[in-house]
TrEMBL record:
Keywords for this protein: Biological rhythms, Cytoplasm, Nucleus, Repeat, Transcription, Transcription regulation
Superkingdom, taxonomy of origin: Eukaryota
Localization (cell): Cytoplasm; Nucleus
CDD domains referenced in this protein's UniProt entry, alphabetically: PAS
GO BP terms: circadian regulation of gene expression; entrainment of circadian clock by photoperiod; negative regulation of transcription by RNA polymerase II
InterPro entries: PAS (IPR000014), PAS-like_dom_sf (IPR035965), PAS_fold_3 (IPR013655), PER1-3_bHLH (IPR057310), Per1-3_PAS-A (IPR048814), Period_circadian_regulator (IPR050760)
One annotated Gene Ontology cellular component of this protein: nucleus
UniProt protein name: Period circadian protein homolog 2
Name of the encoding gene: PER2
Alphabetical list of Gene3D superfamilies matching this protein: PAS domain
Coarse class of the protein's main subcellular location: cytoplasm
Classification lineage: Eukaryota, Metazoa, Chordata, Craniata, Vertebrata
Chain ranges of the PAS domain: 265-308
């Protein structure tokens, strides 16, 4: 009496079996909990997967999600904010930042300003207009890191363009000789930003042109001011939707290697193609052309070799916009010929849109989610073009390189392949510098 019953008598099993059963039940419970958390995490990750990478099968979507997440981690691995030292940068209060940036946000309803700490990456200040532009509540930005609102594939682009030593001081723009339009002419980059979940449950990202500056923000909590990156973010709309880009200004330039890989893309291409520069750079030119027009590129490169760097016009080709529809562009071509090897180093294309897409919103994800792949025909054509341009160019008594506009300065920024280099080449011809708005409208 008063003694614990023998487990072997109650269950009829040996004690070792009972202990093993209890251990097994405990392990199964832990596994079920882990599996539940894993499924929950995968569902959350899948929301960040671009629509064009999603497949109908759940297994393939899961695999694409994991590959995509791994690639994004590798892109930002080892990237972090470093506080700059020895820089003469002016300090501002939050109220002062709000006052000086209102000069831009009040004049353009598509622009918002945000100050991001270079130490923590958190949002220190963001203008009220951001919530309305991103269709979200203002509270969502409180104590949040700015990169959390970027699409994963653009995070590394954001970090590379906001490295402190690359940033111009904001105080340079607020001097007596500066104007708002001067500030908007600084080196910019592009990112897609989301304000959170939409009604359907998916994240909706909008393309923005980001212009970064360096400043100090007076911290009321800590004794020292903290270095921040102030960004003027301007939403980019399709060039075919109102207010439309005039037809005579639907022009952009590109450069590509002898292997037909995009090396540089003019920022004016963004509202016309729907792609950000980083979407195209490093990809094959042929991959984005209409299948029936790809063979035309072989004839174009033969002519490039023949013209020895001098510009020439060619027949139109069809280029696939981000929404999956084709636009027709009239093309002009030139090239840079290395004066020592007498070989083509890179090819410059100047393109004018003749016919836009039926669906004017070029930023929409394509209806079909299947990705573009390098098929055998593209690979063979690429090899033919590459072999062709390995031949030395015969001098015709002209300069070793040509310009599409008759000005040699078109080549000056070709060596700076950062996704926005080409915009400086003929920007003065196509875009009025007096306007703080990025793109001309009718």
């Amino acid at each position: 009496a008063g003694q614990e019953p023998d487990v072997r008598i109650v269950t009829g099993w040996p004690l070792t079996y009972v202990c093993a059963f209890w251990n097994y039940s405990s392990e199964e419970s832990a596994k079920a909990k882990t599996q539940k958390e894993l499924i929950k995490t995968l569902k959350e990750l899948k929301k960040h997967l671009p629509a064009e990478k999603r497949n109908k099968g759940s297994k393939s979507t899961t695999l694409n999600t994991l590959k995509y997440a791994l690639r994004c981690v590798k892109q930002v691995e080892g990237t972090f904010f470093i506080q700059p030292s020895g820089l003469d940068v002016s300090a501002y209060t939050i109220e002062e930042i709000d006052s000086i940036t209102s000069e831009y946000t009040l004049k353009n309803t598509d622009i918002f300003a945000v100050a991001v700490s270079l130490i923590t990456g958190r949002i220190v200040y963001i203008s009220d207009q951001a919530a309305s532009i991103l269709n979200c509540k203002r509270d969502i930005f409180k104590n949040a890191k700015f990169v959390e609102f970027l699409t994963p594939q653009d995070v590394s682009v954001f970090y590379s363009f906001t490295t402190p030593y690359r940033l111009p001081s904001w105080s340079m723009c607020t001097g007596a000789d500066s104007s708002p339009s001067d500030c908007m002419q600084e080196k910019s980059f592009f990112c897609r930003i989301s304000g959170g979940k939409e009604c359907e449950g998916d994240l909706q990202y909008y393309p923005f042109r980001m212009t970064p500056y360096l400043m100090k923000v007076q911290d009321s909590v800590h004794a020292e001011d903290q270095f921040c990156c102030l960004l003027l973010a301007e939403r980019v709309h399709s060039g075919y939707e109102a207010p439309r880009i005039p037809t005579d200004k639907r022009i952009f330039t590109t450069t590509h290697t002898p292997s037909c890989v995009f090396q540089d893309v003019d920022e004016r291409a963004v509202p016309l193609l729907g792609y950000l520069p980083q979407d195209l750079i490093g990809t094959s030119v042929l991959l984005h052309l209409h299948p029936n027009d790809r063979s035309i590129m072989l004839g174009i490169h033969r002519k490039i070799l023949q013209y020895a760097g001098q510009p020439f016009d060619h027949s139109s080709i069809r280029f696939c916009a981000r929404n999956g529809e084709y636009i027709t562009i009239d093309t002009s071509w030139s090239s840079f010929v290395n004066p020592w090897s007498r070989k083509v180093s890179f090819v410059i294309g100047r393109h004018k849109v003749r016919m836009g897409p039926v669906n004017e919103d070029v930023f929409l994800a394509p209806a079909t989610v299947e990705g573009k792949t390098m098929d055998t025909d593209i690979q063979e054509l690429t090899e033919q073009i590459h072999r062709l341009l390995l031949q030395p160019v015969h001098s015709n008594g002209s300069s070793s390189y040509g310009s599409l506009d008759g000005n040699d300065h078109i080549m000056a920024s070709s060596s700076e392949s950062n996704g926005n280099g080409v915009r400086e080449r003929v920007e003065s011809e196509e875009i009025s510098k007096s306007k703080p708005v990025s793109y001309p409208t009718s």
